[in-house]
């Protein structure tokens, strides 16, 4: 299961109720901060999350409303927290801008007081844990080096403990071997294969965060069948021409992608202050019923078998 906590849902500039782009994705002990707009560190504290285990940032692109909070966040973490390693993922162009911010403003002419790694992103898997992966995929915004991120749990076959009990499989390394797909031989000489004690394949939960983008036709396969799609909706359709000019989407365009790709749930974010939330959600739900508008500090769980807001 993944969990996403929205920290900032406004576009370009903050409003009274919405901070700038940032969200945290959790999976067990892992935490990923996706984008880091101005004021993100305060939003993290206000959310109750705190800074524990927050050592990775995934940047969608290098615009200031998505990276400017890194300066304050890292200044705080390196001064007050027990920070050993910190990784920042982004395109070459994005990391060049981040480097100027950190080493030109935060630590001018100095070495970072912690081990800071700038990880250049290319399309494909950028992080892999035991039971999930994080992949980067290119998106079309303004200029090169813009990425979205896809979080996918690995498919697995559940171990059927009752079946193993009935076959006389002892507790211990024998069960571990069966889970790993190996065969074992019992004390009575009976051979037990993994097929005897493993259930049917279960596909893991999946979600994607696109960041800012101005077209969707190149994302259909990336988004196909997702449990949750988090995508920008800076404009509504009456301003589609303006949206195209600035490389952004309307709520209708986002909903059309969700419908075409067969996603299970759509969460919209990155809203312009010129619109009322009810107009945005009305436009999206006219196309794709299971659409939601994120607010700062909203939390959603992403499960394969259930997609309900917590």
Task: List descriptors.
310 residues; alpha/beta; Metallo-beta-lactamase, Chain A; 2 domains; 7-stranded mixed sheet; 10 helices; 16 strands; 27% helix; 25% strand; globular; disordered C terminus
What does this protein look like?
By secondary structure, the protein is an alpha/beta fold. The chain has two domains: 2-154 and 203-302, 4-Layer Sandwich (Metallo-beta-lactamase, Chain A); 161-196, no CATH class. 27% of the residues lie in helices and 25% in strands. It has helices at 40-47, 64-67, 69-80, 92-106, 161-167, 173-179, 220-223, 240-245, 251-261, 277-285; strands at 2-8, 22-27, 30-34, 56-58, 85-90, 115-120, 124-128, 132-138, 147-153, 184-185, 191-192, 206-209, 228-232, 266-269, 291-293, 299-302. A hairpin with a 2-residue loop joins β2 and β3 (30-34). α3 (69-80) crosses α4 (92-106). The longest helix has 15 residues, at 92-106. It starts with a strand and ends in an 8-residue tail after the last strand.
**Principal-axis shape:** globular
CATH topology tier name of the largest domain:
Metallo-beta-lactamase, Chain A
How many DSSP helices? 10
Largest sheet: 7 strands, mixed
List the domain count as a whole number: 2
What is the helix content? 25-40%
Which consecutive residue ranges, at least 5 long each, have pLDDT under 50?
306-310
The SSE string, one letter per element, is EEEHEHHEHEEEEHHEEEHEHHEHEE
- What gyration radius follows from the Cα positions, in whole Å? 22 Å
Average predicted confidence as pLDDT = 93
Going across the biggest sheet, name each strand in turn: 6-5-4-3-2-1-16
Distance between the termini: 13 Å
Beta-strand percentage? Answer: 15-25%
CATH superfamily of the largest domain: Ribonuclease Z/Hydroxyacylglutathione hydrolase-like
Class from helix and strand fractions: alpha/beta
Give the class-level CATH name of the largest domain: Alpha Beta
The name of the CATH architecture of the largest domain is: 4-Layer Sandwich
Task: Count all strands and give the number.
Answer: 16
